[in-house]
Amino acid sequence: MDDPTNKSIFPPLDKSKAEIRLLHLQPRVVAGDKITCTLRLADLDTKDCEYEALSYEWGLETDTIFTAVINEEEVTIRENLWWALWYLRADEGESALLLRLATGTPKHIMEPSIELKLSPFAAL
User: How many domains does the chain have?
Assistant: First the structure.
């Protein structure tokens, strides 16, 4: 199910900066529309770096397929993340989210190489 081998949606991090990847969750358009996001870089050293953090458990793999469109590519995500994104979508405007697993393994498709030292949830 969760195949993070396609790295085309991940903008590369500049290791000389305090960069992180933020998931910009697009607002809902109509009932039943797809979860749509963009994955963009943010520099923690800039004043305009604002985001909300979402810490979650990986969850069980199910037979039901849950997807989100990220950078115009449809990707498979686990059910509990799908429901969180579904309910976090605003009616207007996008939301910037830093996704963090509450456990160390397995790596989540949203954060294949995020630096723990940069994460506000490094202790989790």
Answer: 1
Residue 14 lies in a domain: no
Tell me how far apart the alpha carbons of residues 61 and 87 are, in angstroms, rounded to a whole number.
Answer: 20
> Backbone dihedral region of 43: left (phi > 0), alpha (psi from -120 to 50 degrees) or beta?
beta
Q: Using alpha carbons only, what angle is made at residue 121 by residues 60 and 71, rounded to the nearest 5 degrees? A: 65
Q: List, for residues 80-90, the tens digit of each pLDDT value.
A: 888 999 999 98
Classify residue 9: in a domain, yes or no. no
Residue 82 CA, distance from chain mean position: 10
Q: Is residue 71 part of a domain?
A: yes
pTM beyond cutoff 0.85: no
Question: The domain containing residue 101 runs over which residues?
Answer: 19-118
How far apart CA 22 and CA 57 sit, in angstroms, is 18
